Each structure stands twice: as structure tokens, then as C-alpha cells.
Amino acid sequence: MLASLGRAVTPALCAIAGSTFFLSIILGLGGAVQSALGAVSRGTQTISGSVTSDDGRPVAFAAVRLVDVDTSKTFFAETDADGHFSFVGPHAALYSLVASKSGFVAATYGEFRVRGAGTPIVLSVGEVLDGLTIRVRREAVIFGTVRRPDGVPLGAVVVRVLEPTIVSSGRRELLAVRTGVTDDRGAYEIAGIPPGQYFVKAVPAVGIPISLSEITARPTDAGAHVLPVVSQSHARLQGYAASYYPGSIHASGAEMISVLAGERRRGIDIGLTVVYGASVEGRIVGHGSPPVLRSGEVVLAPSDPYQDPIAVKRAKVSFDTFAIYDVFPGDYVLRASTRSSLVDGPELRASARIIVTAGADHKGINLVLLPASSLRGTLTFDGSAKMPPEASFSISLDPVTIEGGDGAVGLPVRGDVLPDGSFHFTSVWPGRYRIVFMLTSGSEGWVTKSVTVEGREVENCLLDIGPGEHRSDVLLNLTARMGRVVGTLRDSMDQPATKYTVILFPSNRASWSPLSRRTVAVRPTNTGAFSVDRVPFGDYLLAVVDDPASNEWLLPDFLETLVPMSTTLTVSNQATTEVRLKVK
């Protein structure tokens, strides 16, 4: 979770500060921090400043938005010919300030890295804030050509610019920042790229016809190669494999490129590889004893549907066996679902993750059918089973790992809460899930306090559901009574230290998880104030991070490095802990 004064923002956090910190802790009501916000009212408040580019020049006619963090009410302004802007008369509130213009990457006031966290702005009654500077960076453009193994350019190929990212689940992924398509000359041009480091990947359409001349062509300088023709009973489909710059079908052989603000980078040429489709073959195996199947189907789909557009393939099960042909290189999930032919037989499911390489058949796969599971439980509200008046709730099971697979597989399972507070999930794949409570109408102010199974609290709301297991002993405990942490961060000159990030995380290492509700990162406001609301009670560590860069703070290994520079504090129910920090 990432918050600023208890509100969600969108930064990226990483490197540890080389600074030293002095910390004093005071238990109290946090009145000093609250007074910094001032009353929400209209008056003669003013916010003004300028927008400059990465080269220091003023940016004329840029759009500037002043957004109330609480209500999302937005005020608009435009910079003049000298890059100046002004907002006159906005109500006193907590704001974010964002500037944008075509050809530039949108930037938030106070951010130090591209698309990083900004500094929230506290505007008090009658206050005049001037001299605020927002720095926007010019977008980059890359050019290149995608070629066949014989050197001939290839059109209609999708090209993606991918950024290595740590997502909120703690996984490292390549996320598409921009996308383009080659023209009839095989050339592409992708604009609007923020300065940074990227991989570039060409993704041809599956099953493009290939001529004999291409199959016999020699390797290209870009590293593309051709597999020899293999005689077999099933004629293999030849096609072009998705390839990373400069010409590798595997991420391990990819070359990262760095682009600067405003750069027009040429020569990002990608050589494609001709590959043969592989076969994926195996058997359906029963769990415990061989099942009697009424019908069944096996589905092969990309493990990440938002990555390469690899066609989903299906095959009917014949005498407990299946075969899927013409599978091109990629990361896939193989799934089967069926019902036993026995009277009132259970639903059976199987899942496995496979990585297909060029021309390498996958045979002898055993898909183990496991009975589908179910889950029943009850919500409690600060210890009471009585549903709050005029409130409605819904919950979901978000998959972390699915039995038979490797990594998260599938989409969240949604469920509604009945008026008596009970909930029910049916046809759940065996695996590990996080149970998530979702706010709906009339449910504002409630948060998850704990999840108990058989009277025992589980860490980070994680549930393990076994094959054919039908749980009915889950209690999801909600509360409106949480703690709060408020404070200030100042430098050695007793001025607001706004460029740092404060990280609050549990002292119990068992709670260090990317999915933890107890790990929070906070950017101080322009006054140096910060606040984290709805904090579960317990013991915590508090650390200050300099120049944050990514979501690395979600990872337990990173939190371990913060321990020596942290201090302890205890959060109590319905109490506010005030913290004063000074950076030296």
C-alpha cells in the first residue's frame, strides 16, 4: 500500500538513503499535523509557479491541473508564454499538482524520477504559495526495422517497448510502455517514450506464411537463425517467433536500450527467427484413483494474457489423452476442466504451466485432475455479526498460486455478501488465495482487521485451499477502529524535508509480504507533514528512504536492509501516534 496523508498516490520506491536520521516519538492526537491542513473553505488562497523542461527552458501553453486529493475536484490552468501559471481562489485542501503537454511526459510537482511520486501540497485558508516549479521531460522517439532471416523487411509486425517493473504483487514484470506497428517497408516509429531503460520486442502474427527461400536462408547479423526441416507424421507449421532486440527469442539474450529526454534514437533493428511449431501432448490423470470422464477439453493459453497475442488453442480429450499442435515459443498455462460421469460427481480441474521453446515438443505431460473446492464464511463488524444499516459488501478471492501451476494463474473469484453477513464461493481451483474485502455503497470506513480459519488468524489474509476441500470456518473480521500515524519530516535547517519517503512496516518479519496491509510508503507534503490512516494495531518499524525509484520496498529483502536504520513504534486501536523526524 502506498499513501500520502492516508491517500493513495502512484510512486515508485527503491534506494536506501545514505543520510542519517534523528527520530523522536510522541503519543498524542496529532493536532499539529491536522492544523497544517486548515479548514476546507473558500478564500483568497493562491497557488502559482512555472513549468520548465528538462533543459531548463520554460514550457509555454502547458496544461496544469490542481486536484483535490479528497474529492478529486480539479482546477485547470494553462501556462503563459513564459511558462507561468496561477490558481486564484481554490478552497483550502490537500492537492496534487500535475503538468502535461504534447511531446512531454506528464509530471507531478515534487517528483524526482519520471512518473515517480510527487509532493502533496497543503493549502491553508488565506495562504499564498508561489514559486512552485514543475519539471516536465521531453518524450523520446525510437526508430527501427524488423527483418526476416533473409534480410527482407517485414510489415504488419507489432513492436513493443517494455519496461522492467516491480508490480504491486512484488513480481518483476516487463510492462508495455508504448506500442507500434511496422509499415510495408518493415519500418516502425514509436513516439511518446519517457526517458529510461527498456527492452524492445517484435511480435509477428502467428502463422505468417513462409516461403522456401526463407527456410533455406543463412543467418542474419542480428542473430536470427533457421531450424532444419524435420520429417514427421504431423506437418509442422513454420512461423516467425517473437524476438527481442537485437534478435533473441529469449529475454536472457535481449539487449536493453537507454533513451534520454528528447532523444530520437535510430537503428533499433530486430531480426526475426523462423521456428517450427511444437506439439504439447499428454494424459489426463485422476487424483487418487483414475476418474471416469463424461467429457473434457484441454485449453492452452498464454500465462499472461496481456503479453504476446498468442492464440488460445483447444483440444478435445480422447481416451484420457490430448494433443495440441503448432504451438510457438512462449510461456503458457495448460488447463483442463470436466465432470465425473458418476451420479452427482464433482467438478474436476487440472492446471500446469509450461514454457515452449522453438521446435521442442512437450510430450508425456500428466494433467492431474483435482476436485474443485468451495469456501463459506461470515463477516463480523467489530465483533458483531450484525450488518451495518444501509451497507452492502462484496469480497473476492485473488489467486496467488494455483495447485499444479507455477505462479499466479487465473482471475479473481468474486462473491457477494448476503444480508446476514455470510458469503459463499463455489468451483474454486485448489491453491493459495488472498481474501479481499471490497468497499461498496454504505461501507465506507470499514477495513479488514483479520482473517481467521478454525479460530486461528492467518497472515496477510492468505488462505490455502486444498483439492476437494469445502471450508465453512472462515471469519473475515472488519473494523472501523484502526490506529493512525502522523508526523513531520524536517532537515538539519529545520525546513520541510519533502524529497524523502517514509516507510512504515511491521516489526514481525512474518508479515513482510508484497500483499501485506501493514507496509505503507508515504511522501511528506510541502509542509513536511505526513499521515497514514487505518493502520492495524501492532508493533512497527519506521524508516526514511532517499531518492525512491521503484516498488522494491514491497520486497522482504529490501525491508531487511531498512531494519538497521529504523526505529520502533506501537500503533493502538483508535489512537494516534505522532512522530517527528529530522534528517541530518
What would you say about this model in short?
By secondary structure, this protein is mainly beta. The radius of gyration is 28 Å and the shape is flat. Mean pLDDT is 78; it is low at 1-42, 209-233, 305-309 and 403-409.
Q: Which topology of the largest domain does CATH recognise?
A: Immunoglobulin-like
Task: Sum up the overall morphology in one term.
Answer: flat
CATH class of the largest domain: Mainly Beta
Strand content: over 45%
Question: Can you tell me the number of structural domains?
Answer: 5
Which residues sit in consecutive blocks of at least 5 with pLDDT less than 50? 1-42, 209-233, 305-309, 403-409
Give a quick account of the main beta sheet: strands, pairing sense, barrel closure. Answer: 5 strands, antiparallel
Radius of gyration: 28 Å
Q: Give the N-terminus to C-terminus distance in angstroms.
A: 27 Å
Structural class: mainly beta
Query: Number of helical runs?
Result: 3
Range of helix content: under 10%
- Write down the overall mean pLDDT: 78
- Using the 3D structure, state the CATH architecture of the largest domain: Sandwich
Could you give the count of β-strands? 47
Superfamily (CATH H level) name of the largest domain: Carboxypeptidase-like, regulatory domain
Structure description:
This protein is mainly β. It folds into five domains: 3-27 and 482-583, Carboxypeptidase-like, regulatory domain (Immunoglobulin-like); 38-138, Immunoglobulins (Immunoglobulin-like), CATH 2.60.40; 140-276, Carboxypeptidase-like, regulatory domain (Immunoglobulin-like), CATH 2.60.40.1120; 278-371, Immunoglobulin-like; 373-479, Immunoglobulins (Immunoglobulin-like), CATH 2.60.40. Helices cover 3% and strands 49% of the residues. The protein contains three helices and 47 strands. Strands 5, 6, 8, 10 and 11 form a five-stranded antiparallel β-sheet that branches. Strands 14, 15, 17, 19 and 20 form a five-stranded antiparallel β-sheet that branches. Strands 26-25-28-29-31 form a five-stranded antiparallel β-sheet, with no helix packed on it. Strand 28 and strand 29 form a beta hairpin. It is flat and about 80 Å long. Residues 1-42, 209-233, 305-309 and 403-409 have low confidence and may be disordered.
